[in-house]
Structure formats: structure tokens, C-alpha cells
Specification:
Layout: E1 2-7, E2 11-16, E3 33-37, E4 40-45, E5 49-52, E6 60-64, E7 76-85, E8 90-91, E9 96-105, E10 110-117, E11 123-126, E12 129-132, E13 141-149, E14 152-155, E15 159-161, E16 163-174, E17 180-181, E18 186-195, E19 200-205, E20 217-220, E21 229-237, E22 240-243, E23 247-249, E24 251-263, E25 274-283, E26 288-293, E27 296-297, E28 305-308, E29 317-325, E30 328-331, E31 335-337, H1 341-376, H2 378-383, H3 385-389, E32 395-399, H4 408-413, E33 421-427, E34 435-443, E35 454-462, H5 471-477, E36 483-486
Length: 489
């Protein structure tokens, strides 16, 4: 027994009996056809045709009344399903096949796939299979298929294609799009597209080690100038890791570490050119400098450098500068700049004092030695006292920086000569009276009215050999005087 299905506005099911399928018997001269829908009798008809609409498409079959076991096979619309291969997680880059299958009688005539990727509009393609050679994250979305035969069309259930992939498009954003000022709060945020989502973040400062923290955000509670630089982050999930490009964090602050330097850096020569330079760390850079001399502002002193074309003694003093930008200002420490003359005079005075002290030590040592030797030769002195009485000429020793006592002409010449240091030691013996023994040490300075004069004088009084008393008398009558005088302006 065969069946036919035709469509002319309505679905028409017709029974066509094979001549040999129905026994030749009087009873079957005018057979009755019984139609069933989903197993239930819906019509007894002498006509082998049964008309239905497309909305009534279902499972149908018919039988011939009185003929046991003689019935048509059932006809029905497709029953459609979708399968995915391989099963399990779908990882980006792998090969994936979607298959649409359907149980239908008569067989399915066409398959149509419908899909919507990442929230877009539905699109379609035909065929029982849809193959992805290297599936991408962009292929994620909703998929279903439809199968159609003469009995109707059936739609499968929808599957969600969830493609797994490692982090992509990792980037860093700054909480503020405006200027970052020192002392403010700043937050950096790391963003990345990943499936499954990123489960670990790592923060880095360019040209530095990794920072503490594995969260999506990195916070500066009070940002400082030391925090300026370039930052980037790394995003990681079970499928991979990806670093972002770097973002610049430009922290603005007022001038810091302001200082003054001088050029040339060596000894300053009178009349030479001297340049002062003001340096300061600031962001934005310093746009105004002010110069001060002895805490008073210079006229026209507003550049980073200040030049003194001919340096003179009147320019000796303390210099400092002030640096200013839109975020604040800062003064440098004062720098003392002077010609070396004053400093040389001080050094010469110190050297002179040292020389005086050394000469005094030598004179005292000589005196002690002389007194000791004199006490041992008292008896010899008495025997020769008469011979000594007639000799009243002074005995002296002159130690000097010059070959003879300075004349008036030589004294004037010393004004333009180097300093002269000399000492004179005189010893005199007289018949009766005590003759002073003295040493004079004088530090000679250039003959300038405003220069300091420093000298030292030491005098010793000793009795002559002829009139030396006894040891007891010497103890009582020794009137030697040792003194030193230092005069300063």
C-alpha cells in the first residue's frame, strides 16, 4: 500500500492501493478508508483522499475497513534536534561542528540554521551542518536550526555557543582625565576581555619591579612626585596571560631642591665675569626665577641665570634665588660669593700668630737653658768679674729677615713686597745695673691703613756676670721680667 502527499492550497493525503495489495473479494468493491491522526480515528471516508491545512500538520495514517492489518505507514512533520562536536568546553582556535538532524516522514527536504552572535541580529545559513575550522570568540552566541518536509517545519531548541579564550585587549585607565596634583587620590583600573573572566591581575611600574597588589584596581591614597611614571598591568585566567600597554601618570608639584651654582667654580678673580644659575625640580617646569643679593631683589634679575660681568669687592655677599611655577614656589639656600683677598688676610694672620707662638717657645727654651748654665758657673764668674767690669760693650745677636736694620727706603719698599717675619734677640752685660734681655718678634704686614698690625715682644732682664749675687741673694733679688704684648686694632 502506498501513499501520496500533495499540496494545492491544502495538504491532501491520498491512498493508492497496489492492485495486488487488496484481495479481490466482493466486500472490497467499494472499500471504506479510515484516517487516523496521532493514533485517533478522525474520518471514515469512501475517498482515498483526506485534506488538511498546514496548521493541522501532524502524524497521519489510514486503513481499509474490513481488511485486517492493511494500513498505510504514518506521515508526520520533522522532529528536529541539534548536536555539537566535540562536546564539552569550546576553546578558541579549536575545530567545532554543529549538526542538525530530524526524524521525518516523508524525509526532510531542507535545513536552515539561524544564529545571533554577541547580541546582534539573527542571520541564517543553509545545510544540515555548520563547521568552524578555528572557532573565534566572536562566534559566541545563540544557534538553532529548522527542518522542513511536506508535513511542515520543526525548529530545534536553542544552544548557547560559549567560546572560551585567554585575556584580550588588556588596558589601564586613570580615574581622572585632568591634571594629577601631588597629594591627591588616584586610582588605576586594569580592564581585559577574557572568558572565563580574569582571576588575577599584576601591576607594574615601567623600568621597575612589580607592585604590591593583585586586584583590578591600584590606588594611590596620597600620590607624590616620586610616583610619577608609566604603569601597566597584566591580566590572567586559566587559558593565558596578557599585559596591557603602559599609561603615563604625570604628577604635578611645586618647585623642590632649589639651589644656586656659580661659574667659574674655582677662585674668583676681580674683574672677571661670574654667572649664577638657579636649579629646581618642578612639574610643570619653573617659569619664573627671582634673584636676591643680601636678601634684596635684583633689578632685572628674573631669569634662570644671572651674570655679573665685572665682579668687584662690592659684589661680595650672599646670593639666593626663588623658583616659581603654577603649583608653588621655593627659595634656595644662600650662597656666599667673594673675592679671595679677605680670606687670604685671615690666613696670613693665622700663620703669623703660629710663628709668634713658635718663636716664644724657642726664646723660653733658650732662657731656661741660659739660667741653668749661669747657676753652674757662678764661681767662675766671680773670679773673672774684674776683667768683665771694664767691658761695657753690648753683646747681641740679631736674627732678621733682612741683612741689616731696615732703613727708611727699605721700609717703604716693603709695602709692595711679600710679608717679612723677623726676630731680634739682644743680650747685654753691664757693670752694675741690670740689662734687659729681650726678643722681639714682629709680623710685618703690607702698609695699608685698614690692615691689622700684630706683633709680640718678649723682654728678659738678667744681671751681669760681674755683679751676680750669691745663690741666696739671687733668689731674693732676681728681678727678671718676662712679658709678652700682643696688640690688635
Amino acid at each position: 500500500m502506498l501513499y501520496q502527499l500533495s499540496h494545492t492550497g491544502l495538504f491532501k493525503l491520498s491512498w493508492t492501493a497496489d492492485p495486488g495489495s487488496v484481495p479481490r473479494h466482493p466486500t472490497y468493491t467499494n472499500p471504506t478508508y479510515i484516517w487516523y491522526k496521532n493514533g485517533q480515528n478522525v474520518q471514515d471516508n469512501s475517498s482515498p483522499m483526506y485534506s488538511i491545512s498546514s496548521e493541522d500538520a501532524d502524524s497521519y495514517y489510514c486503513a481499509v475497513k474490513g481488511h485486517n492489518g492493511l494500513s498505510s505507514p504514518a506521515v508526520y512533520k520533522p522532529k528536529t534536534t541539534v548536536s555539537v562536536s566535540p562536546s564539552g568546553e569550546i576553546v578558541e582556535g579549536s575545530s567545532v561542528t554543529l549538526t542538525c538532524s530530524s526524524d521525518a516522514n516523508p524525509p526532510v527536504q531542507s535545513y536552515t540554521w539561524w544564529y545571533k552572535k554577541n547580541g546582534g541580529d539573527y542571520q541564517s545559513m543553509t545545510g544540515p551542518q555548520h563547521v568552524f575550522n578555528q572557532i573565534q570568540s566572536s562566534d559566541s552566541g545563540e544557534y538553532y536550526c529548522e527542518a522542513q518536509n511536506e508535513m511542515g517545519t520543526d525548529r530545534s531548541s536553542t544552544i548557547n555557543m560559549d567560546v572560551k579564550y585567554d585575556p584580550k585587549s588588556t588596558s589601564v585607565s586613570v580615574s581622572t582625565s585632568g591634571e594629577i596634583v601631588e597629594g591627591s587620590s588616584v586610582t588605576l583600573t586594569c580592564s581585559s576581555d577574557a572568558n572565563p573572566p580574569v582571576d588575577k591581575y599584576t601591576w607594574y611600574k615601567k623600568n621597575g619591579a612589580s607592585l604590591t597588589g593583585s586586584e583590578k584596581t591600584y590606588n594611590f591614597t596620597t600620590i607624590s612626585s616620586e610616583d610619577r611614571g608609566e604603569y601597566y598591568c597584566g591580566a590572567e585566567n586559566k587559558y593565558g596571560h596578557l599585559n596591557s600597554s603602559s599609561v603615563s601618570v604625570d604628577v604635578q608639584y611645586g618647585p623642590k631642591n632649589t639651589s644656586v651654582s656659580v661659574s667659574p667654580s674655582g677662585e674668583i678673580v676681580e674683574g672677571s665675569s661670574v654667572t649664577l644659575t638657579c636649579s629646581s625640580d618642578a612639574n610643570p617646569p619653573v617659569d619664573k626665577y627671582t634673584w636676591y643679593f643680601q636678601n634684596k631683589t635684583f633689578q632685572n634679575g628674573f631669569g634662570q641665570m644671572y651674570n655679573i660681568s665685572k665682579f668687584k669687592s662690592k659684589d661680595n655677599g650672599h646670593y639666593h634665588c626663588e623658583a616659581w611655577n603654577g603649583r608653588g614656589s621655593m627659595n634656595s639656600t644662600a650662597l656666599m660669593i667673594s673675592l679671595p683677598g679677605k680670606q687670604t688676610s685671615v690666613m696670613n694672620a693665622a700663620v703669623g700668630i703660629i710663628v709668634v707662638v713658635l718663636v716664644l717657645i724657642l726664646c723660653l727654651s733658650g732662657l731656661m737653658w741660659f739660667r741653668k748654665k749661669s747657676s753652674k758657673s757662678i764661681s767662675e764668674t766671680r773670679d773673672t768679674s774684674e776683667n768683665v767690669q771694664g767691658d761695657s760693650s753690648p753683646v747681641y745677636d740679631n736674627i732678621s729677615g733682612m741683612a741689616m736694620a731696615p732703613t727708611a727706603t727699605q721700609t717703604a719698599a716693603t709695602v709692595v713686597q711679600d710679608d717679612v717675619h723677623y726676630a731680634s734677640v739682644h743680650f747685654s752685660r753691664f757693670k752694675i745695673q741690670e740689662v734687659p734681655l729681650y726678643s722681639t718678634v714682629q709680623l710685618h704686614q703690607p702698609q695699608k691703613q685698614d690692615e691689622d698690625v700684630q706683633y709680640d715682644a718678649v723682654k728678659f732682664n738678667c744681671p751681669s756676670y760681674a755683679n751676680r749675687p750669691t745663690a741666696a741673694q739671687a733668689a731674693e733679688e732676681d728681678s727678671s721680667v718676662l712679658y709678652s704684648t700682643v696688640n690688635k686694632p
